[in-house]
Automatic annotation (TrEMBL), chain A:
Annotated ranges, domain ABC transmembrane type-1: 112-328
Family per record: Belongs to the binding-protein-dependent transport system permease family.
BP terms from Gene Ontology: transmembrane transport
Organism whose genome encodes this protein: Sulfitobacter undariae
GO cellular component term of the entry, any: plasma membrane
Transmembrane segments: 7-29, 111-139, 151-171, 201-221, 304-331
Pfam families assigned: BPD_transp_1 (PF00528)
Membrane topology: Multi-pass membrane protein
Main location: membrane
Entries under CDD domains matching the protein: TM_PBP2
Protein name: Peptide/nickel transport system permease protein
Keywords associated with the record: Cell membrane, Membrane, Transmembrane, Transmembrane helix, Transport
Membrane in keyword set: yes
Compartments where found: Cell membrane
TrEMBL record, chain B:
Organism: Sulfitobacter undariae
The keyword tRNA processing is assigned to this record: no
Keywords from the named record: Cell membrane, Membrane, Peptide transport, Protein transport, Transmembrane, Transmembrane helix, Transport
Name the UniProt record assigns to this protein: Peptide/nickel transport system permease protein
GO biological process, one term: transmembrane transport
Family: Belongs to the binding-protein-dependent transport system permease family.
Length: 342, 384
């Protein structure tokens, strides 16, 4: 019951945050002077194409771009009726992409779940790498194993993601025959789901997952190591040692459990960085996630597309953070329900 | 006991060390804190080396034009994609001072790439303190003297040349001017914002604290890069390179402050209850004075250490933005802009030297990380 109430409360704050974020995003997107359509109209006028102007004017009316900014926001988000009734983000209408001349929902369709998949894989990768390496580095502190792990972690933090992506792709292709670019082989695009398609996607995900996860895993590993080191000098560890518990069992049974808390809590800090990374890496590697759309939309002021992608990315992060918060409460009963003691 | 002319009493017997049983156990116990920190910091060899390296890097910035053999946008049409050249001292067992071999380009029309042949019979000595393209020393004084120049009829591309025949080495030096200062400007912005908001939240508490905390939470929960992208896409494209550079640094700083503000707030919450703060308040000091004179100095060193650790993120951020074409743009030279040129597989496969700019990025970021870690470890000088 307590947990349910906490979950509801946490969900409520998430919605509230999302609302503030939507305002922020709307303002940022409307920072550049003018919009896609008014630029287009000016260009069409200059080249004397009158019928194009009519269409652009129609779209401007249709998407309420001629109204004041605050009204535009309310219509975009779906809080106020637009020219064709209530049809904003919360009604599931994501708007029209002027650049691609198609509805936003149609353009991003497939990209959405590929984005989720990629980020999920990256999070799993981070845990899979950081957990054993962090514990190892702490257990064998100040030995070559520790130093090697530390050095790799530093290197992972210091290498720009996109370069790592390019280099790994090149060498992966050359030596391991990993496919280059994209999220799947071209012949599967638009095809229904099949075993071969899944296999192709998995194969294509190896390098991006690695690249996105590296810096996160490095940071996570170092934190876990520090936490473990704090715990390893506590009396209860000595007691366990004195009782003759095997080293591996001892680590897993006592200090790891205590050190594990921040490990889960950290996902809230980690996730924004990883989603950022996935956008960047997708652009560099031409993955069919929403990253490339975001870049294209931002460059051409295609505001509905850019706005939706930004909202989606924020939503993804917020949901991830919420899940990690709930996991933390389940994992550690000492954490008090509610908002006190932040 | 003797009496000085000024009526002071002076004990003529020499002072004996071991007679004083109340002397501190550690000889440097009463040394100023910064000296203790320095002693401790010196023991972190890696951090020390990193610090010296970074200092050298920043000292080179104003005289980059003098050290670079070429100016950043000087094109040599005869040397497109020239490979790195080495500077040798001995030619056929004979010492003739630093020289280079001339290289000549040939278009390989079968593989569509440039191939270069080195003429190893004609060593051409380098020229020193010679005239070249004009640049501004310290950004102020126009000059055309370079430390090294290419001899007549040859080139000196230490790290090769790029697609337009521009010297990579010179461009990396010039690029450092922007890439390295972005972090400094960004961190100043983030510092001011972070300390102000963190101090207000921690010192005043109550409603301001609640509002600022929510702001921090919201800003921290949005992925940075898409926001950077959106903000820098909003920079008008007709602005000059300098204006774009400043606005990009400010953007990087604006999104960085929440982390700093959070730690400042936590510090303030704990320091607020200290006696000396109470005393200052009781003596009628205004909040701004209490914050500035009594509380900030207490954890300034902590802030500096954490700032050092967040500069790399900004350097990487600038690189990523410029790489994607939304940060600094072409006439400006930064490491990200240079990598933007190298963003295809051909430049890794055939012209590998065009991706050299990633080396300084990695080294500088590593150095900042080591330095920051060392600083953080030496902040508490009384802990052994």
């Amino acid at each position: 019951m307590m947990f349910l109430r906490y979950a509801l409360y946490r969900f409520g704050t998430m919605l509230l945050t999302l609302w503030v974020v939507s305002i922020l995003i709307f303002v940022i997107i409307n920072l550049p002077p003018g919009d896609y359509l008014s630029n287009q109209i000016a260009e069409l006028r200059a080249t004397g194409q009158a019928d194009g102007v009519a269409k652009a004017e129609f779209l401007r009316k249709e998407y309420a771009l001629d109204r004041p900014l605050w009204e535009q926001y309310l219509i975009w988000a779906g809080f106020a009726p637009g020219p064709s009734g209530f049809s904003g983000l919360i009604q599931g209408n994501f708007g029209w992409s002027f650049e691609f001349d198609r509805p936003v929902g149609e353009i991003v369709g497939d990209a959405l779940w590929l984005t989720v998949l990629l980020n999920l894989a990256a999070v799993l990768f981070v845990y899979a790498v950081a957990l054993p390496l962090g514990v190892l580095a702490a257990a064998k502190a100040e030995t070559w194993a520790d130093y090697t792990a530390g050095f790799i972690a530093y290197l992972g933090l210091a290498t720009p993601n996109f370069l790592l992506a390019l280099i790994l792709f090149y060498y992966g292709q050359k030596h391991f025959d990993l496919p280059i670019g994209g999220m799947m082989s071209p012949e599967f695009e638009g095809e229904p789901m099949s075993w071969l398609k899944v296999k192709s996607i998995l194969l294509h995900m190896i390098v991006p997952t690695f690249v996105i996860g590296t810096s996160g895993a490095a940071a996570m590993m170092q934190r876990l190591r520090a936490n473990m080191l704090d715990e390893l000098h506590k009396p209860y560890v000595e007691t366990a040692k004195a009782k003759g518990l095997a080293p591996g069992r001892l680590l897993a049974k006592y200090p790891l459990r205590v050190a594990f808390n921040p490990f889960v809590a950290d996902i809230g800090n980690l996730l924004p960085a990883m989603v950022s990374g996935s956008v960047l890496v997708s652009v560099v590697l031409g993955l069919q996630t929403i990253g490339p759309y975001l870049l294209a939309a931002l460059k051409s002021q295609d505001q509905f597309l850019a706005g939706f992608v930004l909202m989606f990315v924020a939503l993804l992060t917020l949901i991830g953070t919420m899940i990690s918060d709930m996991l933390l409460v389940l994992l550690d009963p000492r954490i008090r329900y509610g908002s006190r003691g932040t | 006991m003797s009496i000085q002319p000024s009526n002071r009493f002076v004990d003529p017997t020499p002072w004996v060390d071991d007679a004083d049983i109340s002397s501190p156990e550690r000889a440097d116990m009463d040394a100023p804190a910064w000296r203790l920190m320095w002693h401790k910091f010196r023991r972190h060899k890696l951090a020390l080396i990193s610090g010296i390296f970074l200092l050298c890097c920043y000292l080179i910035l104003p005289i980059a034009g003098f050290i670079a053999p070429y100016t950043p946008n000087e094109r040599s049409a005869d040397y497109l994609y020239a490979p790195p050249q080495s500077i040798n001292l001995w030619h056929e067992g004979e010492f003739i001072g630093p020289y280079v071999y001339p290289i000549t380009a040939k278009a390989d029309l079968e593989n569509f790439r440039w191939t270069y042949t080195t003429d190893e019979t004609r060593p051409l000595p380098l020229k020193f303190f010679c005239k070249g393209g004009t640049y501004n020393l310290f950004g102020l004084f126009p000059s055309d003297t370079h430390l090294v120049c290419a001899p007549e009829g040859a080139s000196v591309f230490l790290w090769g040349s790029d697609r337009l025949g521009r010297d990579m080495f010179s461009r990396i030096l010039y690029g450092a001017q922007l890439s390295l200062t972005v972090g400094l400007i960004g961190i100043s912005v983030s510092f001011v914002l972070g300390i102000t908001f963190g101090a207000i939240a921690g010192y005043l508490g109550g409603t301001p604290d609640w509002i600022i905390n929510r702001m921090i939470e919201i800003l921290r929960s949005i992925p940075e890069l898409p926001l950077w992208l959106a903000l820098s896409a909003a920079v008008p494209s007709n602005w000059g390179p300098v204006a774009v550079f400043f606005i990009i640094s400010v953007i990087l700083g604006i999104l960085d402050w929440p982390g700093l503000a959070r730690s400042v707030r936590a510090k303030f919450l704990s320091l607020r209850e200290e006696e000396y703060v109470r005393a200052a308040e009781m003596m009628g000091a205004k909040p701004s004075r209490v914050i500035r004179r009594h509380m900030l100095p207490n954890f300034m060193s902590h802030l500096i250490a954490s700032a050092t650790l967040s500069i790399p993120a900004m350097i990487l951020g600038e690189t990523a933005l410029s790489y994607l074409g939304l940060g600094l743009r072409a006439p400006a030279v930064s490491w990200g802009v240079m990598l933007n040129d190298a963003q295809n597989l051909a430049s890794i496969e055939i012209y590998w030297w065009t991706s050299i700019p990633m080396l300084p990025i990695i080294v500088v970021v590593l150095a900042f990380n080591f330095l920051g870690d060392g600083l953080r470890a030496s902040l508490d000088p009384y802990k052994s």
